[in-house]
Each structure stands twice: as C-alpha cells, then as structure tokens.
C-alpha cells in the first residue's frame, strides 16, 4: 500500500508571475492573467502552486527578465501594445517549475504582489492601486466626491 501511494505521488509545480506594482490595479490584473496563461503549458496538475510577485517598475522587470534569460529559465515576457504603454514590459510569466530552489537566487528578494502594510491591510486604493489608503476618485463619478484619501 505504501509503495502504490509513493508511485502515484508527483512533485508539485510552482507557477510564478511577476508584475509591475506601478501599474493601475485593473490593468495589472489583466497582465497577471496574460502572463499566467501564456506561460502555462496547458492543463496543469492539481496542486500546482501559483505565486504572484511584484517589482516596482519596468526597469526592475527588464533587469529580472535579463537574469532569467541568462540563466536559461523558460519564461514569457508580456508587453502591452496599446497606448499609453506602447510596447512596455508589464509582466513576466515563468513556465511552471518543479525545482523552486533554482529560482530562489533570482526571486527571493521580490515581494508577494499587493500593496501591504505591516498590519496586512491594503496600503493603496482597491480600485486604481494609488498609494495612501482608499481612493474615492474611482467612485467620484457615482458619488460626486472629489479625490480624497482615507
């Protein structure tokens, strides 16, 4: 019985996506979907771990992409062709891996995605991602308020 359980066990995969935290929240969500979908080989096994990490800007994402390329790590760069981004690098999807340790030197310094404070609460607007608290500019059209941060 133990042998059959061990025989059926398979190592779990980890699927990494790295995004820029300087992009508007809704746009950023779409880039996560693009990066995950385009870097996936297809039907992933149950138990695959998904990890979304963040870098502060395009320069940091370009530097990471170069390090991944030099290390031979299979990945897919996501570029947004439409204005106002005009071909800017917005995200990276790393093809799912079994050996997370091989990526540790390149990814361990990155933060999990999300503007978090030390108390685990959002440090930015849930609608547009602007730092400083809840932004009512996104709701201004509906509620008639001016831009205010809580």
User: What is the third-level CATH name, the topology of the largest domain?
Assistant: Bit1
Going by helix content, strand content and strand pairing, the class is alpha+beta
The largest sheet, given as strand count, sense and whether it forms a barrel, is: 5 strands, mixed
| Annotated CATH homologous superfamily of the largest domain | Bit1
CATH class of the largest domain: Alpha Beta
Poorly predicted runs of 5 or more residues: 1-9, 117-122, 139-150
Write down the oligomeric state. Answer: single chain
N- to C-terminal separation?
59 Å
Counting structural domains, the number is 2
- Supply the CATH architecture of the largest domain: 3-Layer(aba) Sandwich
**How many beta-strand runs?**
5
The helix content, as a percent range, equals 25-40%
Sequence of secondary-structure elements: HEHEHEEHEH
Summed over residues and divided by their number, the pLDDT gives a mean of 77
Structural Rg: 18 Å
General description of the model:
- The structure is a single chain.
- This protein is an alpha+beta fold and 150 residues long.
- It is globular, with a radius of gyration of 18 Å.
- The model is unreliable at 1-9, 117-122 and 139-150 (pLDDT under 50).
- Strand 1, helix 2 and strand 2 (49-55) form a beta-alpha-beta unit.
- It has a five-stranded mixed sheet with strand order 3-4-1-2-5, sandwiched between helices.
- Helices cover 29% and strands 19% of the residues.
- It has helices at residues 2-8, 25-39, 58-71, 104-107, 140-143; strands at residues 14-20, 49-55, 75-80, 88-94, 111-112.
- The chain has two domains: 2-114, Bit1 (3-Layer(aba) Sandwich); 115-150, no CATH class.
- The longest helix is centred in the N-terminal third of the chain and has 15 residues, at 25-39.
């Amino acid at each position: 019985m133990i042998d059959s359980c061990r025989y059926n066990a398979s190592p779990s995969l980890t699927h990494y996506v790295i995004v820029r935290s300087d992009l508007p929240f809704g746009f950023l969500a779409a880039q996560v979907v693009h990066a995950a979908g385009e870097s996936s080989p297809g039907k992933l096994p149950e138990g695959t771990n998904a990890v979304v990490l963040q870098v502060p800007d395009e320069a940091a994402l370009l530097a990471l992409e170069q390090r991944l390329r030099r290390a031979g790590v299979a990945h897919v760069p996501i570029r947004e062709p439409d204005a106002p981004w005009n071909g800017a690098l917005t995200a990276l999807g790393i093809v799912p891996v079994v050996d997370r340790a091989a990526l540790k030197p390149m990814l361990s310094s990155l933060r999990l995605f999300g503007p978090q404070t030390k108390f685990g609460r959002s440090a930015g607007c849930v609608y547009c991602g602007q730092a400083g608290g809840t932004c009512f500019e996104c709701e201004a059209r509906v509620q008639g308020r001016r831009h205010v941060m809580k």
